[in-house]
Specification:
The structure is a homotetramer. In chain A, α3 runs parallel beside α10, α5 packs across α6 and α9 runs parallel beside α10. Helices cover about 35% and strands about 15% of the residues of chain A. Chain A has about 350 residues and is α/β, with parallel strands linked by helices. In chain A, about 60% of the residues are buried. In chain A, the strands form 3 sheets. Chain A has an 8-stranded parallel barrel with strand order 7-8-9-10-11-12-13-14, surrounded by 5 helices. A 4-stranded antiparallel beta sheet of chain A has the order 2-3-1-4. Chain A has a two-stranded antiparallel sheet with strand order 5-6. Chain A is built from 10 helices and 14 strands. At the C-D interface, α2, α5 and α6 of C face α2, α5 and α6 of D.
Chain lengths: ~350, ~350, ~350, ~350
């Protein structure tokens, strides 16, 4: 961290500030006196140094963080890719493309089973399905809850597909004991109490980026979980909020190569939520794989028009089957398998 | 709700769709056949009608919501301003300006008491103080927790000021039993599980707008709480995320008159978090009052440079005293008292 | 266009408004009286109807445009892709991927020739080079001007590559007489006076999307040019402005399939300006081709560190050569050639 | 400017880079060798130093600009407020609030005269009126052009009010010879060729902030004009583009105090374009004055429903009269006159 002091500070003031930093943050401080400014360089682990607090000092003009504030998630300290292995042996982040698919919300045994069988046939290796649904309106369908998770597990038995579902509160953790991957939705990316509890679990977490969260904030949320012990994190970009209204959100495709550079964690894309439009799922999926994504999470519904939530963006099983064929072509061109 | 159908749909298809809508949502449907399009008008309570689901229908070209999706928060159905009365008789939303002030986080008995006494003297009528702090970094100070709430209550005894503090999870509710106003932070605005629990409380809630939440979404989150029975909500605009970097966030000043038109709930502004800069708190507060805000929530610290969090944006007690004088001039010009 | 009137308007008022619309805009108006609202449907060409003006009418509650406001650029009225043929026979928009490359700004004969020869060898078929540079600072290098164009033409003679360069004002048109494709930069996307003049030219125009322009606005700017007679337009997405700071702008990858659906014009991507970082050019290019882009425009400099502008985002000729190999793999997977 | 070099660079490489900087930019360079990084401090005038170019150097890790890149517009080098005096003696930026009002576009002699007389009576001291209109659609009314300017001048004769109108291209300059203040619209804020020409004029320029332009970019555009000799610039915030759709744009109220701190130029607000809604003009104007704005530019039309452009956001003369009364109360509370 580089700290530029205001002009014409006395030597005593500079010396006092240096000592304050050394003691408060347990870092070394290198002082450099230039022609018209004094620059301090902080040496050591600056991840706990609060930029805002530094800026609040009368003596300080500018602060520039040079080191990233995340450690466990940082590729610098962990150069190899994190590979997550599920109970059935499926590997995530091993250089190939993992396909997750399923309905937005679990609605009935028939529905989730039918979708599960069809997406498996088309190439999906993990089944998604919402039991607890974060809905903007209190009057909208809120998900089947615990019963939804039961149906999802039944579909796992029938298909052999590991399952992923979204958690909305730490109080639901006991219900998720048997779920293969726990998903944290965009609206809960900075629900720090939930993140802390997930840090104590021994289960992979798929962490979605918030609608207006920066890449650094996403990594800091991963760091929350990792710093408590759970290092099995999958990051997921699902569109950010911009002024453009043709798509529900704007898929930040650059987030893939940027995250792959900054962190060793697997990076997934959710083209269904990013666009909100079924006909965009295929081209965005192909783009994501070409940009280096480790996986995709796609909504598929056997009857989108009758879906209890988010039907507008769901693919039919047939459309999904066709799209996977085209996505596979890109994966193959990248030397990867789906 | 107006639904425009695609061209050249058969009469049977239109009739089937009409019946589907009537049964699923319990609404009336008026069909209007134009030259080159069929338009359906939904009659009755459409708040539970899911736009996304309607858009997913093959037959549909466009959907336009005419009625707002919130009811309890809607000024149309509740024209008079909601006035909230605290235990000590203080009224919020009665046409005057309520001043909340205090430290970002409670750090010690001396600190919170000193700040409380000074802000009271300057004109604040409610004391704020964070006990549980939502921090981007897991390595940053996370607040004093339950002990912080105890110190805040001590300061209430000493000053007579009602207190407000931020809750981060429904599991903390028992600790907040005695807190006068419960604050929901921007990052938890769509933590729907928390909102549902707060809907069962008999205590005023100050609900902050999320960093990238629309005004409609803020109102829908208020509706979550209100639909469970608790109608004592204070809305708070605290800056939204844009491309501008001179300020930490961009204060959406228009949100004040827009919200005052759409809802009967009191509207507050947090100029400290909106700007992140202490010298902007005064002009933004003055602007907020001039635009019709019902209250302000301002960070004050007796030693900003030593604050354990967000010191950069805190006013000193002296600066706060001076700012209140100028803010009062605007309130007076508006015919209001602070 | 659907217009929803306010409740309880008199029949006379509705009839008067109907006549006003018919006369002012030369459209048919279909009136539909519902239970609690009157809906008007406008029939005919509504592209000249001003939504804002309609909204200003006392009688109007809501307006919803159903028809797109652009005609010449609209795929509905021109289903086949527009294919642009340059003088040397090169086709743009014919289903393959066109590669444009070259330095941000022309700096010397040696520089532009060296870069031109190398990018041609790697697969570029058009040479880019800035002569007039739109720079944020008046103190920054503003381009070589007319001399730069001369050097660019010399490089064309030596390599046989058609050339593209950015125009900044209609007063420069005579200098661009011999330039194969005229580029309109993001900052001039709504310089309507320039667009009108370009509409009279018989030369292809590459029109870049503004930093905060919507897809509809980009199409309306194309419509400005087309409505004056010049229908040879290439659209170019080059990143939009968001809150994310890891990349200079956020590449809106969804704009490719969305534009391909809405319009028959070719769609290009500029990964260099979108990201501002050389190591992102390759993955973003691959993603763009996978999402269906018709072409790429990439900055290449023989000595990025010494470039007079935007060096930070330029590829070296060697890096460009390597990237093209990987981009070609994606094109091949799509059944296209570069 | 502070430049942080990558770790473990050789002394020779550092020395070479130091010489390169000194020669290219004519600045002094102070080298500071820390524990694990080398930091360079640039001394002297760094406004011409291109950050992007510095970042492109292999040796560089981070760049931080400490000095602002604008000089003429910078309050540091010109602490007193710029006061602009029009021919009729009217002063702008002298600590009071200047009221500009008039129709979006000039439509007829009757219209502009009637509006001019009424806004003058209500307190406006400058008349606005568009002759050349930047419209998103080529099919929308483009303004009366030269004839519109003539009518505006006639209204000036009748009312004695100085006039302001928007220029769209340097080729129109001769038509604006007699216009008191030349306006540059948001879409032309970075039309650098136009800015350069305006720098040679001896007339005040009202420069509007672009829809997605940062405060620094606005100041750099002012610097373009000032660096050519014309230092009579009025800056105008008119709303930026965000995700919120309740208002046409989001008024960045913080821009007022931020600009007042950074520059000595007068700062105006355009509440009509910022909101797009007539009922928001009054509260936003009051907020702007409370935040320290030097002036307001407001759209008034004698028949908004019949306006040829932007009628939706225009006030009637009567509404304007009432609003001015309330705005004056705020100005008085600030110790200013309107």
């Amino acid at each position: 961290m580089i700290i530029v002091l205001k002009k014409r500070e006395s030597n005593t003031a500079v010396e006092d500030f240096k000592k304050y930093l050394e003691q408060k943050y347990n870092v070394g401080v290198h002082v450099s006196v230039g022609y018209d400014s004094v620059v301090l360089g902080l040496i050591g682990d600056t991840s706990a140094v609060d930029e805002e607090s530094i800026k609040a000092q009368e003596i300080v003009q500018e602060v520039k963080r040079v080191q990233e504030p995340y450690k466990k998630a940082n590729r610098k300290f962990h150069p190899e890719n994190t590979v997550i292995t599920l109970e059935n042996g499926l590997k995530i982040g091993d250089g190939n493309v993992t396909l997750i698919a399923g309905p937005c919300s679990v609605e009935s045994e028939e529905q989730v089973t039918e979708v599960a069988l069809s997406v498996k046939k088309s190439g999906a290796v993990i089944l998604r399905g919402g039991a607890f649904k974060p809905r903007t309106s209190p009057y909208a369908f809120q998900g089947m809850g615990a019963d939804g998770l039961k149906l999802l597990k039944k579909a796992r038995v029938k298909t052999g597909l590991p399952i992923i579902s979204e958690i909305m509160s730490a109080s639901q953790l006991s219900l998720f004991e048997d779920v293969d991957i726990i998903q944290v939705g965009a609206r809960n990316m900075q629900n720090f109490d939930l993140l802390k509890e997930l840090g104590k679990q021994n289960r992979p977490i798929l962490l979605k980026r918030g609608l207006s969260s920066t890449i650094d904030e996403l990594l800091m949320s991963a760091e929350y979980i990792m710093s408590r012990g759970n290092e099995q994190i999958i990051l997921c970009e699902r569109g950010i909020r911009t002024f453009e209204t043709k798509t529900r959100n704007t898929l930040d495709i650059s987030a893939i190569p940027v995250l792959k550079k900054l962190t060793h964690l697997p990076v997934f894309i959710d083209p269904s939520h990013a666009s909100g439009l079924p006909w965009l799922v295929e081209p965005l999926s192909m783009a994501a794989v070409a940009a280096g994504a480790d996986g995709l999470i796609i909504e598929v519904h056997n009857n989108p028009a009758k879906a209890l939530c988010d039907g507008a963006q769901s693919l039919t099983p047939k459309a999904f089957e066709n799209s996977v064929k085209n996505i596979k072509k890109i994966a193959e061109a990248m030397g990867k398998t789906i």
